Every structure is written in structure tokens, then in C-alpha cells.
Amino acid sequence: MGESHAAEAPAALRRRATLAAELGASLRPTDGTSAAALQSSLAADGGTSAGGNVPPETVRAKSKSDKRKRRSDVSDRLSCHKTRESLLSSTSGYNNYRGILNWCVVMLVLSNARLFLENLLRYGVLVDPIQVIALFLNDPYRWPAACLVIVSVVFVLVALYTERQLSKGSFTEVAGFLVHCINMAIMLTLPAAVVLSVPSVTPVGGAFVLGTYTILSLKLYSYKDVNMWCRELSMIKAKKLSRSLSCPSAQHFNEAGRKVCYPGNLTIRDMFYFVFAPTLCYELNFPRSPNVRMSFLLRRLLEMLFFIQMLVGLTQQWMVPIIQSSMKPLEDMDLSRMTERLLRLAVPNHLLWLMFFYGFFHSSMNFTAELLCFGDRQFYNDWWNSETVTHFWQNWNIPVHKWCIRHFYKPLLRRGFSKIVSQSAVFFLSAFFHEYLVSVPLRMFRLWAFMGMMAQLPLAWFVGRFLHGNYGNAAVWISLIIGQPFAVLMYVHDYYVLHHIQEAD
Predict the structure, then answer these.
(1) Half-sphere exposure of 248 (CA within 13 A, CB side)
(2) Can you tell me the distance from the alpha carbon of 491 to that of 493, in angstroms, rounded to the nearest whole number?
(3) Helical H runs in 169-267?
(4) Residues 272-291, buried b or exposed e (16+ Cβ, 10 A)?
(5) For the ranges 211-215, 219-223, 250-254, 277-281, which has the lowest average pLDDT?
(6) CA distances from 249 to 236, 246, 286, 364 (A)
(7) List 5, 434, 468, 493, catalytic entry
């Protein structure tokens, strides 16, 4: 037995050496690792047999797994596909559509350039600056609109005098409230009566006068409320007044010194600063900018002049011919041609509306704010991203929205009215002023503007309930693009029928 084992030992050693050589050749590392290190790692991973040698089965299994791993690495390096979404899918997370936006702008410019060229070829040049001046002044020696604007100073002084008497206790709260109500009622009725009764007041001049008086009445209402709140604070929390918002502590200063406290704000200087400030909500201490930036002021001034010229020129050259050509289909009640004229009018009307928005809410209001060092320049928010009608009305005209929330909506809530009733009341007030500013200058009452504003309530409910995201935003844009020219056509048609046809008969 011992001799047989001794004879088999050299053969076993030779087979083992041959297998180790073959294994070393087949498992040669590709990353520069030595064969000895690889064998040592195999021995450590697979365990050792008696005498420190790796079993053949473990070595073969390790060799196959390494081969599969190398094949997988090569396949990954050669692969060109992986799981991912298309860019235009909503789940892709892609949001850089700048090129598509530029394409839309280019297409819009080209299409409108074609329409404008067609307009020039058909009608010629219709722009006439003298005609624009005649819209404001029929008789250069009689300026009733300008006289009405000058007279508005009287109502401002009456409001200031009333607040001074209330601060001294000469007027009771009830008497002061009655004086303010009568003052603001006359402000809304007097210019309307003059516009309706004086033929020399043109529609454009009448709209300017009524807009001025409407803004002043809202400002004076806010002035009345804020001073009343200050009197209530002085009576209820007299000992804490020095630390209240109406009278800050001594460490708060502005450029004129210590911040003003009630009734120190009841001065002519403070009153007329508020009258000209680009806001409808009164405060005792407005945020102020440190200085006037002349370059910023000049840019806004040039923008104002440019957009005024553009509005006038495009109205004469583009809007007027379309409106004139729309009278015949409206008289014949030709629905197909009426729809075609409405769509033709939608583009220039909407373009003019966008120009008016930028020229008024950005250029002119920033110009006034810079001139008066008025610090709060938030005149609008990103209404163009509105996904609901309510969001649009809350963000496109911030001064009016702040006034409605502060002096109308929240007081209604405090008196126990529900949110739905309060929102409806806000839309009703807005509808009243829209109709007031359109029907009175045109000297006719058709309620198109009033119904258009009140229609925003069911539209807001429908869009908020059934449309979301991009669909809601598209619905808001469609209402703006289609709704406004429809109201314009209705008023122009009624004005044409009321004046021109009756005069011809």
C-alpha cells in the first residue's frame, strides 16, 4: 500500500501542476493584476483544501463567473439603448422649450407682417395724428374734460378737511362718514352728468375723465378707512400706540426723519403724494426708494411715448378698417361672416391689449413710481401663467386687487358673509365700474361690459373645476383673445346704429 501511494504521488503532483498552469493561462487578468495575486484571491474566496490547494470545482465556477462578467462589461460598453422617455412626454421632466417659443414668436411676427402688408395694400396709410387730437378736443377753446380733471382737486381737499375735523373731534364718526359718502357719490355722478349733457365731450375725453374720477374715489375711500383704523387704535390701545404699526418706535427712520404718526399724516403734502402715487391703498408711511435713477426714468418715458404711438397707429391702420367692414354682417346677422370678422379682429385687439398692459402697468406706473421714489413696484404678477380665471384677476392688476381685498372683500368676510358671496360682490363691483367707464362716454347703456365681467364667475367655476394645468391656462388665454373683441364689436355696432344710421334717417 505504501509503495502504491508513493508511485501515485508524482503523477498527482504533475496533474495538479498542469491544471494550475492551464488555470493561470485562462484567468490572466486584463487590468494588470499579477497571476499570483489572482490565485491568492481565488484561494481566499473559495476556501482552501487540505494542504492549502483550491478545489477544481470552485476554480471552474469562478472562471465561468469571471467570463460572464467580462462579457457583460463588453456588452454594456457596446450598448446604445437605455430606458428613457421621449422629450415631449409629460413624464420626461424636460422643460426647456425656448426654441419652440422663439419659433412661435417668429411665426407670429411673420403672420402679422403679412396681415399688415395686406392692410397697407388694400387701404393705404390711414394713420392721422390730427385725427387723434380731435378725439380729445372738438373745440380747442372749450375743454370740459380738462376742466373736470382740475375740479377733482376740490373733492381731494374736502376729504382732507373732513379727516382733520375727525382727528380733532369736531366731527363725529357718523358725520364724517356721511361727508365722505356724499363727497364720493358726487365724484361718481358729477363727471357722468357732465359727459352725458355736454356734447363737446368726446368719448375718449369722457373715458379719461371718468377713469380719473374712479381712481380718485377709490383712493379717497382707502384714505378714509386707514385714518379711521388709526383713530380706533388710538382709542383702544392708546398706551401701546408708540409700538404699533401706525406709529413705529423711534429707532425707525426714513429720509425725512422719524416716520409719521397719526394725525401727523393729515397734511396737504402727504395727501397729494398719495393722490399721484401709483397705488390705490393708503399708508401713513410708504416704502421709498433712495433716489431717482435718471437712466431708468428716461427708458420708461421713451417706452410710454413709443407705445402711445403704436396704439394710435395700429388702431387707425388695423382696427378701424376691420370694424367698419364688420357693420354689414352684423346688420344682416350673417353668422359665418360675423365669426370671420370676430376672428380677424381678435389678433389686432389682443395685440393692442398686450401693448396697453406693458405701456401702462410697466412703463407709465414705473415712471411715476421712480419720479416719486415710490418703493413698491409690484404692479402685476405672472398672470400669463394663470391656470384659473380667478388667478388671472388676482395677478394682472395688483393695485386694484389689493384695494378689493383690503377694503371690500375682507370687510365683507368680517361681517359674516361667505367667500362665495364676497367674491361675487367683488365681481359685481368690478362689472359696475367697467360698464360705467364704457357706457357713459359712449352715451348708451347696453350692459355688454357688465355681462362680460359677471360671466367671469361661471367661467371661473368651470375652469377651476374641470380644467387644470395647461388646459386651464389655454382656457384663460382663449377667454382673453375672444371675449374682448366680441365686446368691442357689440359696442361699436350699437354706437354705429345709434348715431350714424339714425342721423342718416
Answers:
(1) 13
(2) 5
(3) 173-197, 203-236
(4) eebbebbbbbbbbbbeeeee
(5) 250-254
(6) 18, 10, 16, 35
(7) 434
Instruction: Using the predicted structure, report yes or no on whether residue 24 has a pLDDT greater than 60.
Output: no
Which residue type does 326 have?
Answer: S
Among 434, 361, 435, 449, which residue's Cα sits nearest to residue 397?
A: 361
CB atoms within 10 A of CB 337: 15
Question: CA 381, CA 396: separation in Å to the nearest integer?
Answer: 6
Angle 419-442/203-236 helices, nearest 10 degrees? Answer: 140
| Most confident region among 8-17, 251-260, 372-381 by mean pLDDT | 372-381
How would you classify the pairing of strands 253-254 and 257-258? Answer: antiparallel
Give, in order, the Cα–Cα distances in Å from 205 to each of 131, 293, 296, 379: 14, 32, 30, 25
For residue 374, the cross-strand partners are 288
pLDDT band at 111 (very low <50, low <70, confident <90, very high): confident
How confident is the model over 441-467, as pLDDT tens digits? 888 888 888 888 888 889 888 988 888
Residues forming beta bridges with residue 253, ordered by sequence position: 258
- The answer for residues whose C-beta is within 8 angstroms of residue 145's C-beta and 6 or more apart is 136, 201, 202, 205, 206, 208, 209
C-alpha dist (Å) from residue 367 to 213, 289, 483: 21, 13, 30
* Cα separation, 226 vs 283, whole angstroms: 7
- Tell me how far CA of residue 301 lies from CA of 80, 298, 360, in angstroms: 57, 5, 11
Whether the CB-CB separation of 46 and 58 falls below 8 Å is answered with yes
Strands (E) located in 396-435:
none
Which residue did the predictor score with more confidence, 249 or 353?
A: 353
Q: Is the dihedral angle over the CA atoms 204, 205, 210, 213 positive or is it negative?
A: positive
Interval 355-366 mean pLDDT: 92
pLDDT of residue 31: 45
Per-residue HEC secondary structure of 457-505 comes to HHHHHHHHHHCCCHHHHHHHHHHHHHHHHHHHHHHHHHHHHHHHHHHHC
Q: How far apart are CA 344 and CA 359, in angstroms?
A: 24
The residue that leads in pLDDT, 191 or 482, is: 191
Cell of 333: 346677422
434 is an active site residue? yes
Measure the CA–CA gap between 133 and 139, rounded to whole angstroms. Answer: 11
- Of the pLDDT bands very low, low, confident and very high (cuts 50, 70, 90), residue 320 is confident
* Residues in a beta bridge with 258: 253
DSSP letter assigned to residue 34 = -
Q: Which pTM value belongs to this model?
A: 0.73
pLDDT at 12: 54
pLDDT, average across residues 390-403: 92
For residue 214, the one-letter residue type is T
